[in-house]
Amino acid sequence: MADTTDKVEQKSKTGQTNIAQPALSRRRLLGTAGAVGAAGLVVGGAGGAFGAEALRDDVAPLSGVGTAALPFHGTHQSGIADPAQAHGHLVAFDLAPGADRKAAAALLRRWSDTAAELMAGRAPKGDDTGIALDAGPSSLSVTFGFGRTFFDRTGLTGKRPAALEPLPAFTADALDPKRSDGDLWVQIGADDGLVAFHALRLLQKQADGTARLRWQMNGFNRTPGATGRPMTARNLMGQVDGTNNPKTSDGDFAAKVFVPDDRKGADAWMAGGSYAVVRRIRMLLDSWEQLSLDRQEKVIGRRKSDGAPLSGGTETTPVDLDKLGPDGSLAIAGDAHIRVAAPASNRGAAMLRRAFSYHDGFRDDGAPDAGLLFVAWQADPLKGFVPVQRKLDRGDGLSRFLRHESSALFAVPGGCAEGEYVGQRLLEG
Predict the structure, then answer these.
(1) Which stretches make up the Dyp-type peroxidase N-terminal domain (predicted)?
(2) ∠169-170-175 over CA atoms, to 5°?
(3) CB-count burial class (<10 Å; 0-12, 13-18, 19+) for 293
(4) What pTM value is reported for the model?
């Protein structure tokens, strides 16, 4: 669980195509006031009257969240460099017996056509579910990837990338094979739960006869506008999580995250793509919450209140790994999570984390079955995830409170142009 997750709360402010917005109404103003922490303006009797008016049918809808749209077509697939949405579904499929390369190509075309329509806020042809009939696109993204076994089952082993080699075993792993790996992978994200489920339902129906569900995981993040100002998200341990995530403004962002556009050789079809490591990491919250605040902060290496490193400054102050405390000991402990995960501790290895939290009820002992749906993006997992996880596996103080319960690696090809489908260069090249 490296210290590198997206700043989810900035998502409505960054890099999204917003459809023209309706004129400001009182209903929209109420939503805006909540988003900027001004809800306190609506108090007493005025609050009751204002709330009643917001229920009228003739006022404009709330702005921003519903109308925000991401492009489906482009050099890269969406859902990688875009901030993580409030609702997410991670789904893996295995090709059905007898489904060959031609069948897989037809499925990817169906899926791509459907995703393009949904992400534009349109109902795909033949869709009569009505699940998200009244909603806008809500920053919906749909991302497709291929697992190692996909190439065996489609006769494409000669085009399987070397970077798709199985991940090494780690001592802290307690992996469930039934919830790991898979031929095909779909990542769905949206800021509205019905919009996300609508996409999931249609893609699952369209897979019938060609691919069958292997596993599904559902996650969530903080809703845009839930805080008074854009802030880095917190995980279920209550920690500010993601301060050091690579940013699209970094000069080396593309080199860390995406396969070069001039890729040559058998895996040239991966140009503009990325590799996704997917892990379900259960947090031992009962044990974690028994720690004192001081102990929790030392395990992470940051203050819980504002995310500032224990070496001093504010959340965004660069971590000083050499800083000593008044007693002469390291301000950031030798096994603190941010020290062990830092690029400086891993020969510059870095990845883009785009995670979701999850809660799947309670275990037999009453402990919450909750944690992180870890999704890490990188140009090469052997240079990104693997060296960092090896270091965490050996000496991260946080590992005592985590259980890695499923794992998968997928090759996620670049985006496609209009009229094409994701993976076309692989399946028809």
Answers:
(1) 77-221
(2) 75
(3) exposed
(4) 0.85
Residue 173 confidence (pLDDT): 95
Tokens at 23, concatenated? 């004129």
Q: What is the mean pLDDT of the chain?
A: 87
User: What's the rounded mean pLDDT across residues 344-359?
Assistant: 92
Q: Which pLDDT tens digit goes with each residue over 164-177?
A: 999 999 998 999 99
Token pair, residue 214, equals 């292997």
Closest by CA to 349, choosing from 400, 412, 404, 392, is: 392
CA 416 – CA 77 distance, rounded (Å) = 8
d(CA 227, CA 148): 41
Return the amino acid letter for 242: G
Listed in sequence order, the residues at least 6 apart from 182 whose beta carbon sits closer than 8 Å to its beta carbon are 92, 93, 94, 147, 149, 214, 215, 408, 410
Supply 358's token pair: 């999850």
Helix-strand-coil split of the chain, %, nearest 5: 30, 20, 50
Q: Collapse the DSSP code of 142 into the 3-class scheme (helix H, G, I; strand E, B; otherwise coil) and give the result.
A: strand
Q: 3-state class of 214 per DSSP?
A: strand
Whether 173 is catalytic is no
Tell which residue, 368, 378, 186, has the closest CA to residue 283: 368
Complete DSSP assignment for 104-139: HHHHHHHHHHHHHHHHTT-PPTT----TTTT---TT
Quote the CA–CA distance of 78 and 214 in Å, as a whole number.
Answer: 23
Rounded to 5 degrees, φ, ψ at 95 are -60, 140
Question: What type of residue is 104?
Answer: A
d(CA 194, CA 403): 30
Provide the token pair at 171: 């001592």
**How many Å apart are CA 222 and CA 229, to the nearest integer?**
13
* Among the listed residues 29, 74, 17, 73, the one whose alpha carbon sits nearest the alpha carbon of residue 54: 29
Alpha helices, DSSP H, located in 284-384? 285-288, 293-300, 337-341
Catalytic residue among 82, 183, 191, 241: 241
For residues 107-139, one letter each, b for 16 or more C-beta atoms within 10 angstroms of the residue's C-beta and e for the rest, the string is: bbbbbbbbbbbbbbbeebeebeeeebeebbbbb
What integer pLDDT is reported at residue 344 of this predicted model? Answer: 87
For 263, the token pair is 């890729």
pLDDT of residue 48: 39
